Structures are given as C-alpha cells and as structure tokens.
Amino acid sequence: MRILKQEVTLSTVAIYVAILVFFLIFISANYRFFYAEMNKGLYVRLNLFSIVLIVFSTILLFLKNKARINALIIAFLLILSVYTVEVFLSFSYINPIKFQNKERVSNYDYRDDYEIINEFAKNSIEVVPAIPPASFLDMGGVVGKGSFFSAIPLSGISDKKTILCNRNKQHIVYDSDRYGFNNKDSAWDTNKSKWVLVGDAFTHGSCVNTESDIASRLGVKEGRAVINLSYGGNGPLLDLAALTEYATIVRPEKVFWIYHESNDLTILKEELKNSILVQYMHSGFSQDLINKQKKIDQSLLSHLTLEELINKNRELGKGQIKLADDDYMKRALKLYNLQEKLGLISHQSSTPEEFQDVIKRANQIVSSWGGELYFVYLPMYLRYSSQIESHDMYNHKKQVLDMVQSSNVSIIDIHNRVFEEHENSLGLFSHEDNSYYTSEGYRLVSQAISNFVKDN
C-alpha cells in the first residue's frame, strides 16, 4: 500500500507539472503574438499544441492509478521516440564538408582586431577595424572619448587600411576610400558609367579577398566603375541612408539593392526605432555626411580609444567563431529539426510594412536621375542545410518579393538563379562558420547579376 501510494503521488505531481509547463507555453505564445513578434501560423500551432496537452493531462488525473502510471510510461516512451527522430534528423542535415574540414576550423586564428592592429603596428603599419554603422543606432550618434558626434555615420574611417574579417588565418584587409567604404578611391572620379551596390556584410566583402567580392567581380566583368556603399550589419534603412547620402553625387546608371534573408528584416525593426534613420524615408532629408568626413573620422577614431569598447570587442571577437558542436546540441534539445520539418519554426517575424516604403523611396531616388534599381535576393545557409517544404514561404521570401515587385523594382533571385540549380549548394558557403559565401559563391552571384542585366 505504501509503494502504491508513493507511485500515485509521484504520478500526480508529474501530471500537475506537465499541466503547468503546457500552460506556460500557452501564455508565452499569446504574449509574444500580441505584445512582441510572432508569426501567426506558429502562434496558432503552439496554442493548439498546448491546449490539447493540457486537456490530455487533465484527463489523466481522473484515471485509475494503474492506468495513469501506464499512460505516463507511454508518454515517456513517446518523448524518447521523438528525440530519437530528432537525433536522426540532426545527423541527416549536418553538412559533411564542415566536419571534413574540422581540423582546419579548430586551428582558427582567434586573435581579435585589436591584437592584429598591434601586430601591424610593430611594422609601423596603421590599421583600423571596420566599424559597423549599426553600432551607433542605440546611441543616436558616435560616442567617443569625451566627445559625442550627433550623427549616424554610414561607413568606416576614410583612407585607412581596414580589417574586415578573418578567413583561414588570413585577415582580410582593404584600403578604404575617401568616404570610408571598401572601394578604390579612383572609382569616384572615373568618367566610366557607374553602378552602385548597397547591402550588408555579404556585399561589404565578408569574408573573401577584395578581388573576389561582388563589387570587384562586377567591375572587372562589366568594365565599369562599381561603387560599393555596403557595410556589415546594415539593414534596409541604413542601405537607404547610404543611397541617399552618397549615390546621389555620382548618379549611377544602375543600383543593386542586395538583400540577405538571414536578418535584414530583424535589423529593420531596430533601425525604425532610430529617430535619425527614419527621416530618410522622407524626401529632402540628409545628414550631409559627404561634407563631414573629417568629423566622422575624428569621431570614429575617438570611439576606438574607449578602453571599454576595446575590451568588449576583444570578448566578442574571441566568441564569434565556434565549432558547431554546441549549436547542434542546442538545436537537438529544442527539437529544432523536427519542428522545422513540421513547419513549427518561424525563422523571422513578419515583414514590416515599412519595408515596402523603404524600397519605394529607394526607387524614387534612383529614378530621379534616370537610373534603374535592382533588388538582389541572397539566400542563407539554413535554407539548404535543413529540409525546406516551401522555398517561397521560407523566411517570408514570397512576401518580401511581392512587396518589391509591387514597387516596380526588378528582382534578381539568387536562390533560383544560382543555388537551386547548383549540384552542391552547401559547398558555396564557407566551411568555417557556414555563413558567408566562398569565392566561387560570390563569383556565381556576380555572374547571375551580370547575366540578368544583359537579358533585360
């Protein structure tokens, strides 16, 4: 009798704990949907999931003791089976190339930008780190050592050797132009017809040698000046700002808005909170940055001298590149692959309505001097490392492209034109962190852009 009573008590407690957990899932889903950001489809599925399990658990409380315990045992076996499937899916989705190159990745150079800068300094070479404009969104300007510059810069320090990233123990360094972008300075003065690129790190040049990035390849292939106004960490509003401030002085024949699906919409939601950037959505606004480069350089250099920032970057730098073992474990515990297979994963929140306003404004600017705007859609690694039921719906791709198309902007879909047709899509991504493209990946992207323009 004593043993039976103990079993009943434990089973009852287990059921009440389960009901509490499912109730918390229900509350969390509703809070995130109404007060935060959650995809509607995911919200509905989580609600159904939690309600069904709450009802099932409540029914268990009214069963006889033996039946209740048997039901719990069956539930445990079901959970074990689910995780078995998850482990199987995890191994199925792992990129074998990554593990073939594991030794190379484990020998990664973990020195941060400041340690590399000191190494260059020993040879009397002055080098600065790339400073993402997105770093200053929360500050409302550049905070330096005892100073504050009340503007949002859109580039880095001008006329300096700049560290972009670390690849294969080789730090990618480029010479910034007169405005702090990754260009040959002569591109601004040439009489050749010009093209302009705006975008994030993929367009900035991460993480390949300068001659292998999109801008350089397009310049060589097309025999024209291609000016790169992109910077790592940029979202749509920062892209619009760069277009407004700098493209207007060269009035390019074509502008390529290079969108990356991984985080551009997430960044946009942060950009919309910045009182300076939102003004770029209206005609006539400018920070006049092109005439403030000296002040921008002084402010950014002052910003770099902050000891607090240096220490922060050191910690971030050492934590940026990791082997994927921990990530795979976390994904497995969260049943990530199984949820994704069942359509329970929302990789991004819904597309902000302001996104279309940004694209329309960009098209107005480019059209004002008779130029053409092209929207280039870049896919992310997870699109190919996981099994996707619908490539159109993944990361709100269809919704994004519908907004662009309704804004009368031409679309170059790199998923359709490059990755979907390639025999080894995963092989076009860097094996070190599975994020940026390889040199070959960038070559194919540039070729797709060039071919589209010729055909249209």
For this structure, the CATH topology of the largest domain is Rossmann fold
Q: Given the helix and strand composition, which structural class is it?
A: alpha/beta
CATH superfamily of the largest domain: SGNH hydrolase
Which word captures the global form? elongated
Features:
456 residues; alpha/beta; Rossmann fold; 5-stranded parallel sheet; 19 helices; disordered N terminus
Task: Please give a quick description of this structure.
The protein is of the alpha/beta class and 456 residues long. The chain folds into two domains: 2-93, no CATH class; 105-321 and 352-455, Rossmann fold (3-Layer(aba) Sandwich), CATH 3.40.50.
Describe the structure.
By secondary structure, the protein is an alpha/beta fold. The protein has two domains: 2-93, no CATH class; 105-321 and 352-455, Rossmann fold (3-Layer(aba) Sandwich), CATH 3.40.50.1110. It is 51% helix and 11% strand. The chain contains 19 helices and ten strands. The strands form three sheets. Strands 7-6-8-9-10 form a five-stranded parallel beta sheet, with helices on both faces. A hairpin with a 2-residue loop joins strand 4 and strand 5. The radius of gyration is 26 Å and the shape is elongated. It starts with a helix and ends with a helix.
